[in-house]
Amino acid sequence: MKNRLLIKLCCIIGAGTVLLFWMIDILSNQAEQSMSFIDEQYKQELQDYAKQAEDIYSKHGKDALDIWLEELQEKEQTWAAVAASNVVTVSNSDLREKYVEGIKLGRSLDWMIHLYFDYNPIMDIPFTDKNTHFLIQLPQRMRPGKYYTHAGLAIKFALPLILLSLLSLVLYQHLMSPLRRLENATKQFSEGNFDVRINASLDSRDDELTALADTFDHMADRTSKLIASQRQMLSDLSHELRTPLTRMDMAVDFLEHQLDPKKAADRLRYEAANMRELVEDALTLAYLDTERPKLNNETFDLAELINVICEDSRFEYSNHTLIANLPEQAVIKNSSQRALGQAIENVIRNALHHTPLTKQVTVFLSKTDTLYSLIIEDEGQGVPEELLEEIFKPFFRVDKARTLSDAQRELKVGQKRNGFGLGLALAQRQIEAVKGNIKASNHYSHEGKILGLKISIELPIVSEYA
Prior knowledge:
10 strands, Heat Shock Protein 90
């Protein structure tokens, strides 16, 4: 799923926002509910006032009650009174006793006091007879919700700050955990640990950061292979150059001592030409491995190209038999004539190089709906099955697997040796650069005997590039 991280973040932020508003609502209601009732201490004081009023009225009369009420109002800076709740019906009907006893002229002490009211309510505390009521407007000092404003600020500001901080911490950890691993892996990679990978530690995730880890691992894998390949190539190249340089030193000694100077000069030219070829092929291989170019700018006749290569090969290997079964025309688009020409030439020359004089090499080109299939078969000794993939590696000595060697041939000045082990490696890279593929296999007789090596090349008729 694309944008998985975006969806995950939206879900986390959305859930956090809903949770925030839900908690604010719950806590606001609870705070208002808990702060909307008169404190028990003040309830007791109001009940004591009612008891005193009842005692004064019953023992000392109305005048003493008036004096006491005035003193109470002055003391509490509020209004207070004592009233009877005698209900007189207009008709001849009687009121139920429960209704008469339950009549209230003000609020009960147990009722909720709405904090958003601007005025204080009248509190009603009945006397013992249930018909006389002590009424008092709740004194300001007894009004509940003294800390409601502070609680509101805490709920509306402190709570969101805390929750959003926790949400930010969760998101930070969720994002930074893989990024820290990526940072650590990058640091290790820069210090020379080319085996470090991070995707294995992110198996529980499947989002954009996992894709970033995949990209890093792919980059690290390719870079480590390139570095290993370049190191190996440098080592092999230095080894390959050592022998011709030794021969050149010997030839120089011959020239200095006037020992067969013509043969020594020919040897110098021969070794110099081979060294130049070796270095050029190594540089081309390094370029193809490192840059991985897309060679897709030409349209040409593949059959004509192969026919020219075969004619050149027949001239170079005049004592060999090369049979080409090609269609009259095979147009290929979005490819590279130079890259394919070099690759096919290397494969055909390699086949001729390892085929005895009495045997033959066959080149066969066919076409499907989307591909050209090129088969090149020789009649050499073949290659052991375990080495079929190895022959495409740089500097792999096919003579380890095939018995025919340069020692059995006469090497002439100016003739290519085909013995560096770069031909098939270059062919593979060049064919892959035009979106084709190449593989090697042995072909067998009915009795199961190896008849030689078969190289199969598939090339798209029209190469598609992103």
